[in-house]
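Problem 12. The chain below contains 136 residues. Write out its predicted structure in token notation.
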Amino acid sequence: MRITGLYAALLALLVIALSIRVSRLRRLHGHGLGDGGNRSLACAIRAHGNAVEYVPLALVLMLVLELNQTWPMLLHVFGIVLLVARIAHAMGLSGSPGNSAGRFVGAAGTLLVIIAMALLLIWQYVVIHVVTSSLA
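Solution.
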């Protein structure tokens, strides 16, 4: 489970960095809870929250794929795309609450990786369990 561990560690550092950014902005603007109407704080909170919402699901899927002995290079592709997507999303959302290239690339990349991993797991189940058991 070293491959998933690598991306879990890298993504954990990203989530921590986003959390630290929220904490610093809260101190700077004097808002212990919520965003107090501050646009940059609201964007930082959502960048952190969005990562916390999507990263765990993606890592669970990646871990199960790794446990299924999925080709390591494919796991690295998923991990790299996910990491780059999450960084792009955080940068895009941190810069503006509106639409941005970073937000689009980040959201699309994250969703595509999650969908691809989910479909691969379904395919692995069908091939390994359904087809194999019907041949036996």
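Discussion. The mean pLDDT is 92. Students who got a different answer should revisit the alignment rule from Section 12.3.
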